[in-house]
Amino acid sequence: MNMSCYLDTLSLQEAQKATDRFITSSQRLSEYGLARL
Questions:
Q1: pTM of the model
Q2: What is the pLDDT of residues 5-35, one digit of tens each?
Q3: DSSP states of the chain as a string?
Q4: N or C end of the chain: which has fewer CB within 10 A?
C-alpha cells in the first residue's frame, strides 16, 4: 500500500473522529444549556 495514501486515510479517520467528538460535545453543551433554562 502506498505510504502517503495510507497516511491520508489515517488523517481522514482522525478528522472524522475529531468531528464526531466536537458534534457530541456541542450537543451535550446545548442539552445542558436547555436543561438550565
A1: 0.59
A2: 888 888 999 999 999 999 999 999 999 888 8
A3: --HHHHHHHHHHHHHHHHHHHHHHHHHHHHHHHHHH-
A4: C
